[in-house]
Amino acid sequence: MVRITRVYTGTGDDGTSAFVDGSRHKKSHLRFEVVGTCDELNATLGLIIMECNRLQSHDDGGQSSSTKRVKSVVNSALSRIQNELFDLGAELACLPSELPEYMELINELQSDLLLSEMDAWQEHLEPLRNFILPSGQGPEAMIHFSRTVTRRLERSMVRLIESEGEDSVRKLALIYVNRLSDWLFVLGRWVSFSLGNDETIWKPLAKREQVEGVVDIIKKFNSNDDEFSMID
């Protein structure tokens, strides 16, 4: 059992920190960038859970049923993913060859489950005929943000591989992160569908209205402010 009685140690005051194998390195090391991004991603999933739990439920059935369904699925799935990302972060904090023998690593079961869940969600979704923007009326916007952080984690893992070689990151770990980004994209679409929200469709430049900006609106606001300031 883990027992932490003091969070601070003072050992990192010199700008270094330790890998899982105990070796110390500058905090600017690429591996710490990978681990930190994994931690950041995990925190964004916590925000998704929070946003979903804030969804209003009513006792009259209808939309309430869909809201409860979204809360149930998101809480269950993301709680699992948060634990898996914690496992992944510990794994990435060391060369695979130096990992303790007792450490349990993400395997094909967790990676393949992401695919199965995507397939299940997509049974209810219309095929994409347009690109969609990372937006939404509810938790979807936060899910899109988590998706982009996942891609950043993936890029940082690839940079570490390019810097230290193919054996610096387990191949399955990279596969898992790649699939997780797609998983979040599909989850966002499913949440939007379940809540009855419209997806924000990207419009090509040629089909968008002429850009006029908000200059006139701002000038009107400023004019009104000046008029109100003259009133005693």
Could you walk me through the main structural features you see in this protein, from its secondary elements to its overall organization?
With 232 residues, the chain is mainly α. It has one domain: Cobalamin adenosyltransferase-like (Hypothetical Protein Ta1238, Chain: A, Up-down Bundle), CATH 1.20.1200.10. Helix content is 57%, strand content 3%. The chain is built from six helices and two strands. A two-stranded antiparallel ribbon has the order 1-2. Helix 3 runs parallel beside helix 5. The protein is globular and about 70 Å long. It starts with 15 loop residues before the first strand and ends with a helix. The mean pLDDT is 86.
State the assembly state of the protein chains: single chain
The percent range for strand residues is under 5%
Describe the biggest sheet? 2 strands, antiparallel
What is the N-to-C succession of helices and strands?
Answer: EEHHHHHH
CATH class: Mainly Alpha
- Helix segment tally: 6
Secondary-structure-derived class: mainly alpha
- The CATH homologous superfamily is termed Cobalamin adenosyltransferase-like
Low-confidence stretches: none
Count of discrete structural domains: 1
End-to-end separation: 68 Å
Strand order of the largest sheet: 1-2
Average pLDDT score: 86
Principal-axis shape: globular
| Structural Rg | 23 Å
How many DSSP-defined strands? 2
CATH architecture name: Up-down Bundle
Assign a percent range to the helix content: 55-70%
What name does CATH use for the topology?
Answer: Hypothetical Protein Ta1238, Chain: A
